[in-house]
Write a structure and sequence with these properties.
This protein has three domains: 33-104 and 232-403, DD-peptidase/beta-lactamase superfamily (Beta-lactamase); 112-213, no CATH class; 414-513, Roll (Nuclear Transport Factor 2, Chain: A). It starts with a helix and ends with a strand. 33% of the residues lie in helices and 21% in strands. By secondary structure, it is an alpha+beta fold. The protein is globular. 44% of the residues are buried. It has a nine-stranded antiparallel β-sheet, sandwiched between helices. Strands 14, 15, 16, 17 and 18 form a five-stranded antiparallel β-sheet that branches.
Length: 515
């Protein structure tokens, strides 16, 4: 049996390598979507998507369901099924206000990063610097490191998984939260040694926001994130939501819906108390999509784009599902990780998905963005622990598959294109290669001119007359490949550049591939 920690480390390297492909972008040449009709192609899938949501809601006894599709920062489609209030027969709509449970966590994480960016805290600070009651915590071993803010953000503080206990603490006071620390926390792991989902951890982050900013987490998030985004129909306390817009929560018990009591806002709201609408939440989804690609544009959001990308990074790899399938039965394995208040997946085709689920008594929700595609999906339901993620996965797979839209095209850097042109002048005979000045000091100690010439000459002979040399396909700013199209076959040339300035060729590979 493979030791899980070693396996986890291997998976970390693999998925981080995939992730680097996504984050590459040359600031002066931002990636673009090459298909001008892509929105029309996406819109053509909406009737199918509407049916998927409708059927799923009926099959799973959802009293009400609302959903939205965000493309390139715009809410392009919404839909709804059923009711938000069964007694009054209030129909669900994109303006209905649902409690989104743990989807709230990323707002708390974003607030922490904003405070970090303002120089008011550090992610690797021990949490006891802000909550003295944590100073005396007794860990499982004497050599344990103290809980840090980063541990809290990534569910690696060593606290036990606390669903559904945490869901019932929503209305607790700050004093009740502090009392837990005064009495001592029961640890399942030492900090930093394992992932376990902790609502207590995010409630603690909410209190740290208060201690650092001098405002409650609700006030700080509202003033610094919600209002700048125009999220004017997002709430923390259910009693202030307009009655006709508030979604009531239900359980399906003995073939009937039973209404669940709504909890008031409290210290645990930082982990799951937000109430919002599809229209409002789409603005937050747009903010996350706007962080891509990295670029030189002026900052326009309430939080730096780089901090949002940092939020979306897979800091704590926690799973690998080799048997995962799409709704159509297609094999679709993925690696999963936790970011800062966000979940992350990297699928076998290198597609990245970032978002979060939400579940409380009476509610279930989920949102996911696909940064490479500029697409986001959102759904809220008013059924206890409704599995909104399952239907969103099906919808996203359907949208991307039926529309046929492609991810952003990443342009090659100028130096990659320059080195491609210089390589082509040398291929296949490698004449005067050693005096060309384009190769790094290691190159001809690792690759031998006569062998390079023999290999390339044989491959180009099999490919036949050169018809076209393609653009560089970049893996990042300093690594990529290009295709030389021949009459009989094609030639793939891969190369990697050094960190020097100017960057030189340090590695090279050539293959014959079918047309």
């Amino acid at each position: 049996m493979i030791h899980f920690q070693k396996f986890k480390n291997v998976i970390s390297l693999v998925c981080f390598s995939f992730y680097s492909v996504l984050i590459f972008a040359q600031a002066s040449k931002p990636p673009v979507f090459s298909d001008p009709d892509r929105l029309k192609k996406i819109e053509a899938t909406f009737p199918v998507i509407d049916k998927i949501y409708k059927d799923y809601a009926e099959q799973n006894h959802f009293p009400g369901l609302v959903y939205g599709i965000v493309v390139d920062g715009t809410l392009v489609h919404t839909g709804s099924v059923g009711y938000t209030d069964l007694k009054d027969k209030t129909e669900a709509s994109s303006k209905s206000a649902f409690r989104i449970a743990s989807m709230s966590k990323s707002f708390t994480a974003m607030a922490i990063l904003k405070l970090r960016d303002e120089g008011k805290l550090k992610l690797d600070d021990p949490a006891f610097l802000y909550i003295p009651e944590m100073k005396g915590l007794k860990y499982l071993t004497k050599d344990a490191s103290p809980v840090t803010i980063r541990n809290l953000l990534t569910h690696s503080a060593g606290y036990p998984e606390d669903n559904p206990w945490g869901d019932r603490q929503l209305a607790n006071t700050d004093q009740e939260l502090l009392d837990i620390y005064k009495k001592g926390v029961s640890f399942s792991n030492d900090p930093g040694l394992g992932y376990e989902y902790s609502n207590l951890g995010f409630a603690t982050l909410g209190y740290i926001i208060k201690k650092v900013s001098g405002k409650s987490y609700e006030e700080y998030i509202t003033e610094n994130i919600l209002r700048p985004l125009g999220m004017t129909h997002t709430y923390w306390e259910y009693t202030i939501v307009p009655k006709e817009l508030l979604a009531h929560g239900y359980r399906w018990i003995d073939s009937q819906w039973v209404e669940q009591p709504l909890l008031h806002d409290g210290s645990y709201g930082a982990m799951g108390g937000m109430i919002t609408t599809i229209e409002d939440f789409s603005k937050y989804v747009a903010l996350h999509l706007s962080a891509w690609p990295p670029r030189d544009d002026n900052e326009t959001g309430p939080v730096k784009r780089s901090s949002i990308r940092e939020m979306q990074y897979p800091w704590d790899v926690n799973g690998f599902n080799a048997s995962a399938k799409t709704a159509t039965g297609r094999s679709y394995p993925f690696v999963s990780a936790y970011c800062y208040g966000l979940r992350w997946r990297k699928y076998i085709d290198a597609t990245t998905a970032v978002g979060h689920t939400g579940g409380l008594p009476g509610f279930g929700s989920e949102w996911t963005i696909y940064p490479e595609f500029g697409v986001g999906v959102i759904s809220f339901a008013n059924l206890t622990y409704a599995n909104a993620g399952s239907v969103n996965n099906q919808v996203a797979d359907t949208l991307l598959r039926l529309s046929g839209v492609k991810p952003r095209q990443l342009p090659p850097s100028d130096i990659l294109t320059q080195r491609r042109n210089e390589l082509m002048k040398l291929l296949p005979y490698w004449s005067n290669a050693q005096t060309s000045g384009i190769f790094a000091s290691n190159f001809f100690m690792d690759y031998f001119p006569e062998k390079l010439k023999a290999e390339a000459t044989a491959i180009f002979a099999k490919a036949g007359k050169t018809i076209l040399t393609g653009d560089v396909v970049p893996e990042n700013q300093l690594r990529g490949y290009f295709i030389v199209h021949g009459e009989q076959a094609n030639v793939k040339v891969s190369f990697t550049l050094t960190p020097e300035n100017p960057a030189l060729i340090q590695a090279y590979h050539i293959d014959l591939i079918a047309k």
